[in-house]
Design a protein that fits this description.
Elements (H helix, E strand, L loop, with lengths): L2 H13 L6 H15 L1 H6 L30 E3 L9 E5 L12 E3 L6 H7 L13 H19 L5 E3 H25 L3 H12 L5 H4 L4 H16 L2 H10 L2 H4 L5
Antiparallel strand pairs: 1-4, 2-3, 3-4
Amino acid sequence: MDDSTDDVETRIRALGQVRVSAGVQDATHALTATLEDQEVRDGLGPQRRRRSAGLSHRHRLVVGSLIALVGIGVAVPAVATSLLARTGVFGDPSTSTEEDDTEWIDPGADDAPQVVIDAYPEYLTLPPGMPKNAAIADTSRLFAKLGAEQGAGQALVQEGYVTQLYEMFGICAWTDVWLTAHAASDKADESRATSWISDFDNYRTFTSSGADSVRDRMTAVANAARDGEPKLMKETYTEMDCAVRLGEVK
């Protein structure tokens, strides 16, 4: 076994929390060799936003999430020198339920903060008076924490994960509106919040991740909102750490 192979396996073992199959190790080694090719690395610059069709199946990393949110892949060993946050490599959901078709991002790269800003989903509607910048600031905080924990060039995260962070901020914001309105017997605001929570299209990435448990849970939350039952609403608010996520804007 050569030194480059030893280095790859050392980095994989260092993550500790991921069980890596032999197939994934082969894919990781192949991708490492590809990214060490100077022509390939040069090509990541001006034309980095290209589909992964140009890479063979062996060059696509398929590893489970390190962060227990939903199915989208998070924190795959990057094993190559960090260049830019955007890798130009996109996920292939046909190979794993833990991937979507969005781009793999290096959270430790210098330009990662701008990627988070650009990733704000335009369909995401926040409650009246809740600034878009609040969602951007909180999502940036969480993404920066991931980048700091992993370091530049040490992990990859799909852009769909960033979208989920934004959508979950929206769920927190509207759940907070519902709880406040319910406590104050404000039927108008409670109805508006219920309508938003009941529409899965408002957090489409979160509920289309392939995890039935997510859809089942949000269906139960929507039913609780319609029925005026605060218990599950409060539990959801706590489970999603909404007090922390909304702390600076409440």
